[in-house]
Amino acid sequence: IAATQPSTNWHLKENARDHHTSKFSSKELIVRRGQAFIVTFNGTEQPEQNLTFIAETGPKPSKLAKTQATFGISSTVSKESWSAVLQSTSSNSVSISIYSPPNAVIGRYKLSVQSTSSDSSSPASLGTFVLLFNPWSSGDDVFMPNKAECEEYVLEEFGIIFAGNKNHINSFGWNFGQFQGDILNICLSMLDRSLNYRQDPATDLSHRNDPKYLGRVLSAMVNANDDQGVLLGNWSGNYAGGKSPSSWTGSGEILQNWKKSGFKPVRYGQCWVFAAVLTTVLRCLGIPTRTITNFSSAHDADGNLRVDEFYDAYGNHLDRAADSVWNFHVWNESWFSRSDLGPSYSGWQVLDATPQEESGGIYQCGPASRNAIKEGDVDLDYDCPFVFAEVNADCMYWNYDPATGKKTLIFSKSTIIGQFISTKAVGRDDRVDVTNDYKYEEGSTKERDIFKKARKKLGLEDKFDPTAPTPQEIDQKPDISGKFKVAGPLEVGKDLNLILVLANLQSDAKTVHVNMTAWSTVYTRRPIHEIWKDSISVILSPKEEKQFPIKIPYPEYHQQLTTDNTIQVTALCHVEGGIQVLVQRDITLDNPAIDIQVLGEAKVNKEVDVEVIFTNPIDMELMDCVLQVEGNDLLRGILEIDVPPLKASEKSSTKFKLIPFETGPKHLLVNFSCDKFAAIKTFKMVNVID
Fold first, then answer.
1. CB 674 within 8 A of CB 624
2. 207 noted as active-site residue
3. Options 19, 317, 329, 667, the catalytic residue
4. What is the pLDDT of residues 198-239, one digit of tens each?
């Protein structure tokens, strides 16, 4: 090989098209494993059969660790190992097709060429390329046979995340942005900052061919606990010193901020932010991934498949248990095979980057096979008991007396946890319900059998549990029933109108003393501020139903509200001569609407005007109004616009210009916030034409 540095043509356009990597905006070759790519280089004066290629990754490449491969030119590709086949040759250049095995380690590689005929020559570097997982290749652990699903779960940069509560599901758009700017490099540096890499770089690298290994490592790296990872969680309702979790609209800003700060954790995240960032990272690396929202999600801290909630005599929800039931929780599913468990456990795997419980000593969760969860196989790796509880735990509601420490069971329920499990549809902006993929029909014998099987596998059946209610307590029958009905709009800025409905189930009259409270909460149902309380005494005639209207005016709740707009209303009914009845409802208030209009046709490289319209719905002035706009291929980075204060009932119109730079359906995301409303979000699909 001549002393001159060979010049390399990486055929970026053709290789990217063949490898589904055209969306990356990189000047470096990015290809997927288990598939050939073309390279042409010159500066070799050797016959091509005398050439040896070296592909290596990581700080200490070795053949043993699968981080170094040496291969010559052969007549056909080998499916098992790295190989090269001659494509064409001219007087001073050689074109070869390089094939990587479908189980190759992913990451950034250095490619060199060496002449075999002269021992003395040192290898000449051809440059670097990045190798990713390949869901389009049948030999890959992440192979996904359905092409439309590959498009959605690997190539789609826009997502919809579901939130709210089981009575009232709402949703918002998210910009995953996995192909933007420097995101791929940030994802690769995330792997090099993990605890596993710091403890033993060679072993960590040798496992980077395995999606279940990387999924688990990245579920730890997305939260800041243990390893100075990407996001610091905060569920206090006070987000001073950072950005409120509900104000983010995409992962790009978070990942860029993490890098810019010298890899200091970004403040602040909550479950959907952790899940969205993990989606970005895994899609970027080529592992098919989606976000999943579970409504009435259990956080079972002590592993007994039971969640205990405590209320005092006044009906206040006490924040004293490690267990909790969240209005919703968002995690991830990634698609790959489970050679460690067997084919029936392959497919969607649950990963969760929200720091809830330690696993193996650090805050990481998964991969838990979704099939294992459905079948109650909670003894399988990883973290199946925790995920099983999130969708299946039984719920116990207790009355707790702080003075004596005495607790009395009010009632227990086995059908409230894990409802309306939701994800975005493939190729459409709709909700798809996947509850039946997590469990058999609620209340069916099959579902109860699976629950018993899980309890047995966890050794809970044979063990006496002194904290469990007695069968007598569980079998008590209440004399009355109660529920809260909504009687008016559930909107921030409007009075909250509810009706407490109490019904006497018996054929003799009942005297009931009712203590009612309303608290603002965060979406985990953690109480933050008391908003309202009242108590009434009523006599219910035999079989009588009575209604009691409740009104909480906007001025009474607006200062207490958290950015989640959630209120928990509770009525604890003390029935004379009978057992207590707990009536509760979690209410999520909608923000007022905001509207986006694209004025004219959106064409590539042409200016187009966009108007955002918002009307102040309350009779107070809105201050500190800021509009935040982002959208891949429509504008670069994030546009922030200060909006002048809005007087009562005033309508505001904010205009700005876009210059789209790619054709096709694109999403524009808007986030409006001010002193009275947190994070009013909307998105609009913009079809960009030539």
1. yes
2. no
3. 329
4. 999 999 999 999 999 999 999 999 999 988 999 999 999 999
